[in-house]
Amino acid sequence: MAKLQQILTFGLLLVSIRFLEAQEAEEDDLIDLSEMGDAIFGTPDNETTGALVDAYDAQSEQNPEELGTYHEGDILIPLNYRDARTDDTRNGLLALSTRWPGGVVPYDIRGTFASQELGVIQHAFNEYHLKTCVRFKPRTTERDYISIVNGKSGCWSSIGRLGGRQEVNLQSPNCLRTYGTPIHELMHALGFLHEQNRHERDGYVQVLSDNVKPTMMANFEKASPKTHWGFGVEYDYASVMHYSPTSFTRNGQPTLRALRSSSDAHLMGQRRGFSAGDLRKINAMYKCKV
């Protein structure tokens, strides 16, 4: 009888340990968006943003995703997620967004993309597949997936996995001039934020507020350490998640100035692909063994 009781006690202890481990793993996958507040919620802007991206000059120093009226230009979580969210918070984490399990992101593509534009999207996927363990796979019956669309509302994405169908909008043709823009928006969908909003950015860039559109100053607010992960990677001027030196300018003059003599400083806003730092962060977040 005593032996049976010991076995039962051990069994309950093992179950409890596994439950706690699973809970910790689940919390580790949560993405804290709480400090962004309601600014991240909204509806696709088919008027102002759509018109600005439609008129985008490919020779511009800015990137098309910097033209949006959304949070930081291109971050948008539809209002239905705000209305459906619960008050459930764990360890201060807003239970809204998570990482994609196993780094697998089911997707479908809807809209009237030209064959060349579809090729740009596929090139972006291939870059992830070649250099990280993240895998974008055509959706079959998965409940949670991204839907790549090309509505006239600019270049935008939500942050992380929200649950159900979530859109990544790549307005044709200007959000698909280079595969760096879809890479950027897909990094948002994986759970990453903008580089220039890192909490330690003041040691690396100066925001030239006199040149920023007054209504856009909020786009330069710094994130807190718990919201923005660096994964041990130093501030990265060359990140595909960094905005251009003239982002949100009101007069064509720079809004961001590099403060360090880095060989990568001139790459701020590049959309040619991942930086080495981007890959380190993706592979750290998704525990890639590459």
Summary tags:
alpha/beta, five-stranded mixed beta sheet, Collagenase (Catalytic Domain), 13 strands, 27% helix, single chain, 6 helices, 290 residues, two-stranded antiparallel ribbon
SSE topology sketch:
Blueprint lengths: L1 H27 L1 E2 L9 E2 L5 H7 L22 E2 H6 L4 E2 L2 E2 L2 E2 L5 E6 L5 H17 L3 E4 L6 E5 L5 E3 L7 E6 L9 H11 L14 E3 L48 E3 L17 H10 L5
Parallel strand pairs: 2-3, 7-8, 7-9, 9-11
Antiparallel strand pairs: 1-6, 4-5, 10-11, 12-13
GO biological process, one term: proteolysis
Protein name: Metalloendopeptidase
Keywords: Disulfide bond, Glycoprotein, Hydrolase, Metal-binding, Metalloprotease, Protease, Signal, Zinc, Zymogen
Provide a short characterization of the protein structure.
The protein has 290 residues and is α/β, with parallel strands linked by helices. It has one domain: Collagenase (Catalytic Domain). It has six helices and 13 strands.
